[in-house]
Amino acid sequence: MKILHFIFSCIVLFLTVSFAVSNKQMFPLTLWPFPFEIRLPVSFIVLAFALLFFVFGGFYSWLLSVPVRNERYQQAKKIKELTQKIAELETPEQK
């Protein structure tokens, strides 16, 4: 499975580098109500948006995993309590 992941990563890396090298045309970026204009290479714009969506995807995934992490924390806490109770029951009481 790691080999497939490595091969897929190499292909994506090759395509990304190829895209960045072959798209050097300048593209004007404007935001409607503002008079400012920034001229950037097309490859930079596309890669910046890809990075932005990658970060948003990671944040969204992290948010979705919060209930699962909370449940795992509660289960670990309960396991610790039950283990302590078992240990207390197994040790002979000294009177």
Write structural notes for this entry:
- It is a single chain.
- By secondary structure, the chain is mainly α.
- The protein has one domain.
- The chain contains three helices and two strands, in the order αββαα.
- The protein has helices spanning 2-22, 42-64, 66-90, and strands at residues 26-30, 37-41.
- The protein has a two-stranded antiparallel ribbon.
- β1 (26-30) and β2 form a beta hairpin.
- The longest helix has 25 residues, at 66-90.
- The chain is elongated.
Short characterization:
The protein has helices at 2-22, 42-64, 66-90, and strands at 26-30, 37-41.
What is this structure's SSE topology?
Elements: H1 2-22, E1 26-30, E2 37-41, H2 42-64, H3 66-90
Antiparallel strand pairs: 1-2
Helix pairs in contact: 1-2
What is the average per-residue confidence, as pLDDT, rounded to a whole number? 90
Fraction of residues in β-strands: 5-15%
The total count of helices amounts to 3
Topology, number of strands: 2
Instruction: Tell me the structural class.
Output: mainly alpha
Task: Characterize the largest beta sheet: strand count, sense, and whether it forms a barrel.
Answer: 2 strands, antiparallel
How would you describe the shape?
elongated
Distance between the termini: 59 Å
Unreliably modeled segments: none
